[in-house]
Each structure stands twice: as structure tokens, then as C-alpha cells.
Amino acid sequence: MAKVHVQDLTKEYGSLVATDNVSLDIGDGELVVLVGPSGCGKTTTLRSIAGLETPTSGSITFDDVDITDKSPQDRDISMVFQDLALYPHMTAKENIAFPLRAEDGHSESEIDSAVNDIAEVADCDEFLDKKITSLSGGQQQRVALARALVRRPEVFLMDEPFSDLDELLKRQLRAEVVRLQHEFGVTMVHVTHDQEEAMTMGDKLVVMNDGNVAQFGDPDEVFSEPQSLFVAMFIGSPQINRFDCHLSWDGDTAVLDDGEVTFEVDGPLVDALQMARGDEITACVRPQLLNWSDDGSGGDFAVPVTVDVVEKIGTEDVVRCQTPNGHEVTAEVATGVLDEGMEGYLTFTAESLHLFDGHDDDAERLN
Amino acid sequence: MSTIKEDLRRRLPVVDRFADRDLAPYLLVGPTIVTVFLITIGPMLWSLWLSFNRWAPASIAHQTPSFNGGANYAWLFSQGRFWNSVANFAYYGGVGVMLQVGLGLFLALALYNYVDNKGIRIAMLTLFAVPMMIAPLVVGRIWQLLFLPGGGTVNGILGMLGFSAVPWLQSRWLGLTAIMIADTWQWVGLPLLIIYGGRASISDTLYEAARVDGASRWMQFRRITLPQLRNLIAIAFLLRFMDAYKFFDKLFIMTNGGPGTQTELPTYFTYLVGFSQFNIGRAAALTWVIGLGSVIAMLLFWRSMNTEEMA
Predict the structure, then answer these.
(1) Residue A77, Cβ density class (10 Å: 0-12 exposed, 13-18 middle, ≥19 buried)
(2) pLDDT band, residue A210 (cuts 50/70/90)
(3) Which of A280, A271, A282, A277 minimizes the C-alpha distance to A355?
(4) Which of B211, B214, B224 sits opposite A87 (nearest CB)?
(5) Cβ contact (<8 Å) for A102 and B215?
(6) Fewer C-beta within 10 Å: chain B N or C terminus?
(7) Cβ–Cβ of A73/B219 closer than 8 Å?
(8) Under 8 Å CB-to-CB from B33, ≥6 apart: which residues?
(9) Distance from CA of A356 to the nearest CA of B (A)
(10) Residue in chain A nearest B214 by alpha carbon
(11) Is the CB of A87 less than 8 angstroms away from the CB of B215?
């Protein structure tokens, strides 16, 4: 177990900047998830922590010891790779024993009992003697987990290992990993492009975009107070609703106009809007915070819509609506309330509005 | 099916008689089977039969084959010259092939791991492949000249380095070793290319995983590279062993079996018995002994490969 500190990590491949001054502070025993779209630098950051990439500049410390120039062998880490990287010519048991054999001074019986213990914990004791190639995807995942945990490393790294699995197995294994991480109290860094996985697993999220850290915080905070338009758009499912507005003032009232819908804003949000650098404002609202109203009453703001598609997801319906001009607005409402073709309003309160200073990904939060 | 049968029936009335028993397919593959029998299996069985006959067409007494039991076999097992050639083969085929495959493995991994420049790497691979395109006789002649005891390049270089001249090609083991060096120079490219290709196809993440797991370079080689390359190394070994087994040309050029009969290999000895002394019966017996020996060697080889797989 160790605190991991990443300071100003920059990695360049020729003219391509994979990570640009990334800094992270990961506490002892924390499960931190690096999340972002392909090419955002999350895997590069993870591989730098593993020692598989040499940073162009910046430093990495474990418990205040600088390990930037140490080889992976000298870092006391373990890692589950995206393709698992199990040794195909060995049995499950030999795979799990491999990290122990790499260390000096373990007797055969020590190795044996350590492998059996971890195999029981990771639920792979039933196929220990099988060749890797004869195991199913889920079984291979368990072997990879056991191999990574058998040495009880300081830092445990995972690079999207679940991306090839079916949904049910994915959920199962996520829960399992979180359980093991708690049980072992190991510091863990997990990489995924799946925001839902990030939300469900992480103690802390690091949302990355274009080689930069867009936001670092706990899942609730990232969800309810996204610090940039990119984070707002990336985190949350269904995706947040967005209105690219033009800001004008009518006395003390701010008027946000996206060309079709107008929001007249007063009260505390006005202070926020006064901070804006220009008159380009993006207003966002989560689908979960929209309510249906036949006459437009019942909220601070109302958007006139027609219900286009209703997607059943169980206890709730995801309802894709369109404004008269064809702007899509998504709402998540109680199941069975809305039908395709219905006309009405989606309303929401001023508190649920997120305001961003501009229309670009890096537009900062105003309120 | 039926159209073929009807067609045959129309053209060949004899087919009619077999038609009910569906002999048409057999008739169709028949010519091939007969041909194969005539050019491979037949002569093979004939040579087996000959190995139990006295037949020396150039002599007056044994112009035609006459059955003589196991006399040919008894003769060859009593020949010091035969056992000498077997011992030579053990050295040449054992040490020589291992040297070629071992060197090929070393060079392939060194090229893959330590030569970063892709252009240089490809140039090196090509250079190692070029000697394989030269006729073995030419390679033999070149190396014979290089190994000339006086005035040869090899001894010239050794002399410059302060060593005394080595009587290459003039004694049994030095002669075999010189031939081995020439053959290795020509053929090391084959195991090299096979193993290089194999190494290039091992996923890099296996090595990354091994590094993260704490494995030293030696452990990576021992526990990942070698097992992953095992089958390819075995194939390279087999191919070179097959060549060593029928090895003839460089021996013929460089030492001609000499001095005396000291550097003869079994196939060379067989050639002399068959086509110099024209003792066909004895040559046939020799061929069968060598052939069975190689089959047994291969079976043992595969068995050891497979037991390792189980373990």
C-alpha cells in the first residue's frame, strides 16, 4: 500500500503529446479511476505509473520515494492488461505463481499455498490446472486478477480489462474487483473509457481529455458539479442535454437564447453569468432532472417538445424528445408516463442548470 | 456422382460390372495410386528385398540378385568404416545442427532485441539469407580454399593473431569441424529466419506483464521466449537435421571422405559402396539401417517434445 503522487507528467511521442503536465494525488488504499475517451492519455498515465513508459518530463513518487527512473521490476506494482497478457503456454496455476517465482527466496510449498489462497479469494481455484487457452473469458479475467494480487503489491493497476466481456460478467467482475481492493486495502488505479464503470467503481475519478486532467474528484462531485463542458458531456448516461445559448441582458435579468428556446435567468445564477468572459454560454441539464408537464408549469424553465422515441430501461423510460425546430432533448422519467407523439413541456429548476463559459470542450463551469 | 458413373458406363463397358458396388471412385483415383506405388513404394520394397540379396552387377559372380539372408547386415555391422561414419554423423548431425540452431536463436534474438534500426535489421536478415542461395558445391569449394593449410585465409588470419597454423581438412575432427563451419556459414540463416519470425509474433504485452511481475531478463527468456518459440525451434532443428542426414556435397568437395576414410558420413559411405564398388545389396542394407535410424531418432525427438508439453 502506498500513496501515489504524479507530478507534471508529460509524455511526448515525437510531436504527439500523450499527456500534458498531468498531476495526481492518490491516497493510500484509494481506488482511483482514470476515465476518458480514446487517446485522452489515460493509458499513458497508467503505463507511466507502471514504469512501462518513460516520461518525457515530470516525476512519480510512491510514498514520497521517487521511482520515476525505476524499472517496473523494482516498483512493487502489479497490473492487469487490456488483453490480460496471461502466459499462454502455462496453466492458470503457473500464471498465478509467476510473480512469486520472479522473487527470490520462496520455497515451492510457500508458492503453492499462496497460489491456492489467492485462487480461492479470486474464485478461480476450480480451474487452476487448466491451460490458459482452454479457459473462458471470465475465467481468464479471474486468473489475471489472481496473478496481479498474489504478491500483495503496493499499487495495483488495471488497463480496461473488462472491455471485451458481456454486460453481466462485466458487472460481476467490477463488483468483485472492488471487493478485493477493499479486502486487501491496496492502492488501485483503474483505466476505462466507460463512464458508467468509472462511476460505479471509483472512490475518485480522474476525467481526462486531450492529455489533460479535466476534473479530479469523487463520483458524485464529478456528476453533479462538472467543472468543464467536456466533463458534463462525458459523464452521465443518458448524455446531458445541452443548449448553446447567446447571453443578453434585460436589466438585471440574463436572457439565454439558443435560437429557439429562451431561458430568463434571475436570482443567484445571475452572479455566475456576470463572470462570463463573453456572450457564448452553454446551458446544460441532466435528463434525470427533467419533469414532464402538459402546460409548462411546475418548474423554473420549460422547453416545448414532442415525444419522439421511448426507450424502456426497466423502472424508468429514457424519452427522446424534439423541440419544434428539431433540437433533441432527452429525459429520464417514470416508466409508462409518456408515449410517442405526445406534446407538452419538459421543465426543470434553476438549481439543476449547469452553465459553462463558451461552447468548447474546455469551457469552464460558471455556477 | 451418377452422371460420372453413367458417363463411364457409356465409355467403358467394364465399369458396368462394378457399377453396383460403386467402384467408380476407386477407378478414378486408381491411376494415381498405381503411379505412387510404381515410383515410391515399389522401389522402396524392392530395395528392402535387395538388402537381403547379394548383387554386384559389375562383378562376374553376382550379376543377378541372389538371396543371401542377413549377410549384408552382418557385413556392415562388422565394418569399422561403418561405425566410424556413424560416429562422424553423431558429431556432425548432433553438434553441428545444435550449433546452427543455437547460433540462429542467439542471432535472431540479438537482432530483434538490440538492433533498433529497422533498415539495419532487414539488411542483416537479408545478408544471413543470401548464402542459402549459393550452390552448396560452390560454398564447399570456397571454404576449401579458405581452409587451405598453407596460404588459406583462415590460417592467415589466425597467423596474424599469433596462432600457429591449423591443419584444417587434414584430420578427422578438424576436417569435420571445418565442414561444419562452412555449412553453418551457409545455413545459419534458416533457423535465424524461422526463429526471428517466431519472436516477432510474440505479443509485447507478455514481456510487459513479465516485467511488471518482476521477472529478470533471464527469467523472461527462460519462461516466456523459449517456451513460446519451442515448436519453431523444433522445426528448425528438424529441417537442419534432415539436411545433415542426407549431407553430401560439401563433404564430397572439401575432404572427399579423407584423410583416408576418416571423415566419411553414412550416406557418403553408402554412395561409395553402391556406386563406386557397385555392391547394390550392401548399399541397400546400409540405406535401410540409416533410414530406420533416422526414423527412430525422429520418433524419440517428437516424444520428448510431447512429454515436455504435458509437463
Answers:
(1) buried
(2) very high
(3) A282
(4) B224
(5) yes
(6) C
(7) no
(8) none
(9) 41
(10) A73
(11) no
Separation of CA B280 from chain center = 23
Chain B interface test: which of A43, A76, A98, A145 (most B C-beta within 10 Å): A98
The structure's pTM equals 0.81
**A157 contacts on B by Cβ (under 8 Å):** 212
Chain A interface test: which of B213, B225, B229, B308 (most A C-beta within 10 Å): B213
Q: What φ, ψ does residue B287 adopt, rounded to 5°?
A: -60, -45
A52 close contact with B: CB closer than 8 A: yes
Are residues B213 and A94 in contact, defined by beta-carbon separation less than 8 angstroms?
no
Other Cβ atoms less than 10 A from the Cβ of B57: the count is 11
B219 near A CB under 8 A = yes
Rounded to the nearest 10 degrees, what angle do helices B97-114 and B118-129 cross at? 160
Gap between the Cα atoms of A186 and A27, Å rounded: 10
State yes or no: pLDDT of B14 exceeds 70: no
Distances (CA, A) of A273 to A223, A264, A282, B94: 21, 12, 11, 85
The 10s digit of each residue's pLDDT in B26-78 is: 888 999 999 999 999 999 999 999 999 988 888 777 788 888 888 899 999 99
A138: its cell numbers: 471470465
Number of other CB atoms surrounding residue B25 within 10 Å:
11
Q: Look at B223 and A98 and tell me if their CB atoms are within 8 Å.
A: yes
pLDDT one-digit tens code per residue, A308-350: 999 998 888 999 999 999 999 999 999 888 889 999 999 999 9
Label residue B69 left, alpha or beta by phi (over 0 means left) and psi (-120 to 50 means alpha).
left
DSSP 8-state assignment for residue A91: B
Q: Tell me: cis bond preceding B13? Omega within 30 of 0 counts.
A: no
Q: What are phi and psi of B29, to 5 degrees?
A: -90, -10
Asked if residue B13 has pLDDT above 70, the reply is no
Confidence of residue B227 (pLDDT cuts 50, 70, 90): very high
The pair phi, psi for residue A189, each rounded to 5°, is: -120, 125
Q: Where are the beta strands (DSSP E) in B43-164?
A: 53-54, 66-67
